[in-house]
Design brief:
alpha+beta, three-stranded antiparallel beta sheet, 3 strands, 21% strand, elongated
Length: 100
């Protein structure tokens, strides 16, 4: 008589961590036009005109404004897009990311 095949199933506990999140911030300068900042916020960060204007005023009045909170890769991409658009338009606008 043949013995049935035995299958051993092992269960591993894998804890999935949430990815670290990063704030994307625009920094104030005295040269970049406010309209350009609003346009950046609308196009790159998908903000409404009203939200973009409010963030632009935060940048103007407080020195920086929060554009959004993203995973590392998304934040890094958005910072690069802002810097590229500012450079192409010959504006000194700066955008940074910091860990939340």
């Amino acid at each position: 008589m043949t013995q049935p095949d035995t299958i051993v199933v092992t269960k591993t506990n894998t804890a999935v961590k949430k990815p670290a999140m990063y704030k994307v911030l625009l920094l104030n300068d005295d040269y970049t036009p406010m309209d350009f900042v609003v346009q950046i916020l609308e196009i790159i960060f998908n903000k409404s005109r009203e939200d973009a204007t409010n963030i632009m005023m935060q940048v103007h009045n407080n020195g920086c404004g929060l554009c959004g909170i993203y995973t590392f890769e998304v934040a890094e991409t958005k910072v690069g897009q802002v810097l590229a658009a500012a450079q192409q338009a010959q504006h000194p606008l700066q955008c940074v990311m910091e860990k939340e």
